[in-house]
Design brief:
227 residues, 3 strands, elongated
C-alpha cells in the first residue's frame, strides 16, 4: 500500500509499546513500595550518605530535585540529586532508588569505564537524536543519499549512547543491592522489594535502547530500499 511504512509498523511500534509498558511498570512498582516503610526508618538521602561514607566517598553532595523519578548522579559536578519522593522518604522504594544513584557515584569513584564512555557520548547523543532523524528523513524525501547517510551516522551515535547505558545501569543496580546488603541497611525481605523496583526501572532502559535501535534499523532498511 502506498504510503504505508511496513518497517515502522513491524519494528518501531512493538518497541514503543514495550516502552509504554515499562514506564507503567516502573511507576506502579515504585508507587507500591513507596508505601512500604523500611525497618530502619532512614530516608533516601540518609541512605545515600551512609552508603557513600561506607565507600569512602566524601566529595559528593546530595541535593533534592523537583519531580518524580528524576533522580540522577551528575559526575561533572559530583552531585547526587534525589527527587522529592526519594530524598525525604523512608520507604523501601526511596532507599532502593537512592542506593542505585549511589551506585553511579561509586562507579565514578572507581573509574568504571562504561560510565566514562557514556559521559563522553552525551554531546554525540544530543546532536544525533535531535538532528540525525530529521536529516535522514530529509534525505529520503529529497532522494539525496549523502544527506540520508549523514543522518543515519548521527543517529547511530545516539543509539550507541542508549546501548552503553545498559551495562552502566545494570551495574549500578548490582552495586546498590550489594552495598545495601553489606551494610545491613535493609532486611532480606526489604532487599527483595528493592530488587523489584530496580528491575522495573531497568526495563525502561532496555525499552529505550530497543526503540532507538529499531528506529535506526528502520532508517537503514529504508535507505537500502530507496537505493
Amino acid at each position: 500500500m502506498y504510503g504505508f511504512d511496513i518497517y515502522y509498523a513491524a519494528l518501531v511500534v512493538p518497541a514503543v509499546l514495550l516502552s509504554l509498558w515499562a514506564q507503567f511498570k516502573v511507576k506502579s512498582t515504585f508507587s507500591r513500595y513507596s508505601r512500604v516503610q523500611c525497618g530502619r526508618g532512614i530516608t533516601g538521602a540518609q541512605a545515600a550518605r551512609l552508603l557513600m561514607d561506607a565507600n569512602n566517598i566524601t566529595n559528593v553532595a546530595i541535593e533534592p530535585v523537583a519531580g518524580s523519578l528524576t533522580d540522577h548522579y551528575d559526575p561533572g559536578r559530583h552531585v547526587l540529586r534525589l527527587s522529592q519522593p526519594v530524598y525525604g522518604a523512608a520507604s523501601i522504594a526511596a532507599v532502593g532508588v537512592a542506593a542505585h544513584e549511589t551506585g553511579h557515584a561509586v562507579q565514578h569513584a572507581r573509574g568504571y569505564g562504561p560510565l566514562w564512555l557514556r559521559s563522553a557520548l552525551v554531546p554525540v547523543a544530543n546532536i544525533g537524536s535531535s538532528i540525525g532523524p530529521w536529516l535522514a528523513v530529509a534525505g529520503l524525501a529529497m532522494a539525496f543519499p549523502p544527506l540520508l547517510t549523514i543522518g543515519i551516522i548521527l543517529f547511530a551515535g545516539a543509539v550507541a549512547f542508549y546501548l552503553i547505558t545498559l551495562p552502566v545501569e545494570f551495574n549500578a543496580s548490582a552495586r546498590a543491592l550489594a552495598i545495601l546488603k553489606q551494610n545491613q541497611v535493609l532486611s532480606g525481605e526489604e532487599l527483595a522489594g528493592v530488587r523489584k523496583v530496580l528491575s522495573a526501572a531497568a526495563m525502561t532502559y532496555v525499552a529505550s535502547a530497543l526503540t532507538a535501535l529499531m528506529n535506526l534499523l528502520r532508517l537503514v532498511l529504508l535507505s537500502r530500499r530507496r537505493r
